[in-house]
Design brief:
heterodimer; A: two-stranded antiparallel ribbon; 11 strands; B: about 400 residues; alpha+beta; Butyryl-Coa Dehydrogenase, subunit A, domain 1; Butyryl-CoA Dehydrogenase, subunit A, domain 2; Butyryl-CoA Dehydrogenase, subunit A, domain 3; 4-stranded antiparallel β-sheet; 12 helices; binds flavin-adenine dinucleotide
Chain lengths: ~260, ~400
């Protein structure tokens, strides 16, 4: 089994203090801790589990700066076999489309039976890179994947839908599967893994290596431009309801109805 | 001059932090503290990931890492929860085996420690001999009788003494040696050996995930081959071992201080009194500045000591001096920083919080493997020696 996993090195923003940077289009990242995108961690685990069962090789690909090596080394320590970092000044400002194009630039020449990505990235939340990449490669895809069963020539996957619904479908392989959190339990990095990772290949490629032109990537190759980034003001207005249980509950229903919420 | 960890050390730090942040919950820490239990489950999990036996040799199942990596793991574990981190006491003295043991002893014990199957203990302290243990003669004796040692005596405060699969017992094997420490040997006594008994010790202030026991030896017969290292060189062995083993203890104390400092920093921005966060008061700011400075100073000293062990092992006297400085200083500031953390938290720090547990847990660092006072003797001895004066 040849498995490629696309990962992203992202800032942990869930519990951090976020501030907008001077451009007004991004956030200040100096004080943030970066790590592998949460969804991608599950994708890597799934790939390593499949490899441990069926044999083969897991290749990690990322578009990012040198800092992303921390995430790549983590993937290698968890059992991936080699890593490729795609780095170029020209890649800055790429949207999901341009990012998928950069990934396509390298993946088109690699052997693969399966490509795994996370369903979305925790920082920009586009949830599009995997899907667009599948489009470039002309292979089928499935998103929000919660379970993967590999068969001869196809894979049976469970997709997690809203409302606790699951959908089972068959996807012809090679395919791209965008993995949902909870599909497995990502392992911890072990010291043994860290030591082994040092012997594994970590390759860096740029624009020219991928045969891409400058205008195809970065802002010029993107379809989306960010206008503004801001933190919505916290509204402190609250109405305290007093009285008996019945009076309070009918007041709540009344308010929700008045606002068209129920 | 470099003040940075290598990439591999950085990865180990991240791995240790991530493991601890997910596994070392405050609830678990409180439970261990209440029950006085060695955290076997955490110990096994940590072993599986290579955090146990990081510095034990690779050929026996360890990771072959060094003192710096041991410090990183000790610091990160203790930063997250000082009580869960007591899992590290299970391997406390295991490195004595590869350092002094035979191939057979190594094969028998070290791989099982690295796998987290067993813990071990080292027994030097006796009811009548603590700081002077070994120096003035031990009351626990081992006498050769044909092909066996016969051990009699008692030890106390032995960490994991009851849980240990084997105990490395310091015995007086030559009662006439002058000075007496030239007649001390280490002998391996296995759990369940006839005449060897244990009695667990409690209550105690903190350090409750690392249980202590009294050991008694009543005509305990042990094969001669269980001698660890050389006959009558036991005291020398243990002292040379302490030279580097006290460095991760310092790192653990720093980790506890770091955790308490981080909680205090955050809490001071959230707690409002007199209509403002207490962080606005200069008194609080100065406390924070003092805490941060003490931690940074202790950390520099401790990692310098670990670096010396790895890079200048031939400068034995310097290693001894700096590692004693680091242990004494880190233990001292860890007490001070956790104390100040309680102060910053006010009532919340004292009642029903984890800060008070960390405060209790760090107290031991100034007593084990040589009290703060004994460390200062060592430092002073080396300082005077440098100008050719003997104290
Ligand atoms: C929780 C815990 C775990 C332990 N684990 C182990 C273990 O696994 N194995 C083991 O062998 N031992 C262990 N010990 C024992 C520990 O090493 C001793 O407690 C320590 O060395 C101090 O000895 P002591 O308690 O007899 O105190 P004492 O030596 O009686 O010291 C009492 C006080 O006098 C001071 N003092 C002593 N001599 C001098 C001097 N010459 N000048 C000035 N001041 C002096 C000391 O610094 C101390 O403040 C443990 C102890 C505890 C509490």
């Amino acid at each position: 089994m040849e498995i490629i996993v696309c990962v992203k090195h992202v800032p942990e923003t869930a519990e951090a203090e976020i501030a907008i940077d001077s451009s007004g289009k991004g956030i200040k990242t100096e004080d943030l801790v970066f790590d592998i995108n949460e969804w991608d961690d599950y994708a890597v685990e799934e790939a390593v589990l499949i490899k441990e069962k069926l044999g083969g090789r897991v290749t990690i690909v990322t578009v990012g700066s040198e800092d992303a090596d921390k995430t790549l080394r983590k993937c290698l320590a968890k059992g991936a076999d080699r890593a490729i970092r795609l780095t170029d000044k020209a890649f800055d400002g790429s949207d999901a489309y341009a990012t998928a194009k950069i990934l396509y630039g390298v993946i088109k020449d690699l052997p693969f039976d399966l490509i795994l990505t996370g369903t979305q990235a925790g920082d920009d939340g586009y949830a599009q890179v995997g899907v667009i990449l599948a489009g470039f490669l002309g292979i089928p895809h499935a998103t929000m994947v919660k379970k993967i069963e590999l068969m001869e020539g196809f894979t049976r996957v469970n997709r997690e839908l809203e409302g606790g619904l699951e959908q089972v479908m068959e996807v012809g392989t090679p395919a791209l599967l965008a993995v949902q959190t909870g599909i497995n339990e990502p392992r911890y990095v072990s010291i043994m893994g860290i030591r082994k990772a040092r012997q594994k290949e970590l390759k860096v490629l740029g624009l020219n290596d991928l045969g891409l032109k400058e205008e195809e990537v970065g802002e010029s190759g993107s379809w989306i431009t960010v206008e503004e980034m801001f933190i919505p003001p916290v509204e402190k207005e609250a109405e305290i309801l007093v009285g008996g249980l019945d009076a309070i509950s009918s007041k709540i229903v009344e308010t929700l109805r008045a606002r068209g919420l129920i | 001059m470099e003040f940075e960890l290598t990439e591999e050390q950085e990865d180990i730090k991240n791995a240790a932090r991530e493991f601890a942040e997910k596994e070392f919950t405050a609830e678990l820490g409180r439970k261990i503290d209440e029950k006085y239990e060695f955290p076997w489950m955490l110990y096994r999990k940590a072993a599986k990931l290579g955090f146990i036996g990081g510095s034990l040799p690779e050929e026996h199942g360890g990771q072959g890492l060094g003192c710096i990596e041991d410090c990183i793991v000790a610091e990160e574990f203790n930063r997250v929860d000082s009580t869960c981190a007591h899992l590290l006491s299970g391997i406390g003295f295991a490195a004595l085996v590869p350092k002094f043991g035979t191939e057979e002893q190594n094969k028998k014990y070290v791989p099982r420690i690295c796998k987290g199957e067993i813990v071990c203990a080292m027994a030097l302290t006796e009811p009548n001999h603590g700081s002077d243990a070994g120096m003035v003669g031990l009351e626990t004796t081992a006498v050769k009788d044909r092909n066996e040692w016969v051990i009699n005596g008692a030890k106390t405060y032995i960490t994991c003494g009851e849980e240990a699969e084997f105990v490395m017992v310091c015995c007086q094997t030559d009662p006439n040696a002058q000075p007496p420490y030239r007649g001390v040997s280490m002998i391996i006594v296995e759990k369940g050996t006839k005449g060897f008994d244990t009695n667990s010790l409690k209550p105690k202030l903190g350090f409750r995930g690392a249980p202590q026991a009294e050991l008694s030896f009543d005509n305990v017969r042990i094969p001669l081959g269980n001698l660890l290292g050389q006959e009558n060189r036991g005291f020398h062995q243990i002292m040379s071992y302490f030279d580097f083993s006290r460095i991760p203890i310092a790192a653990g104390a720093i980790g506890i201080a770091q955790g308490a400092y981080e909680s205090s920093l955050k809490y001071s921005t959230q707690r409002e009194q007199f209509f403002q966060p207490i962080a606005n008061f200069q008194v609080t700011q100065f406390k924070i500045a003092e805490m941060a400075t003490k931690i940074e100073t202790a950390r520099l000293l401790t990692y310098k000591a670990a670096w010396l062990v790895e890079n200048k092992p031939e400068q034995r006297r310097l290693v001894t001096k700096i590692s004693s400085m680091a242990k004494a200083y880190a233990a001292k500031i860890s007490k001070e920083v956790t104390d100040e953390a309680i102060q910053i938290h006010g009532g919340v720090g004292y009642v029903d919080s984890d800060i008070e547990r960390h405060y209790r847990d760090t107290r031991i660092n100034d007593i084990i493997e040589g009290t703060g006072e004994i460390q200062k003797y060592i430092v002073a001895r080396e300082c005077y020696r440098e100008i050719g004066f003997s104290v």
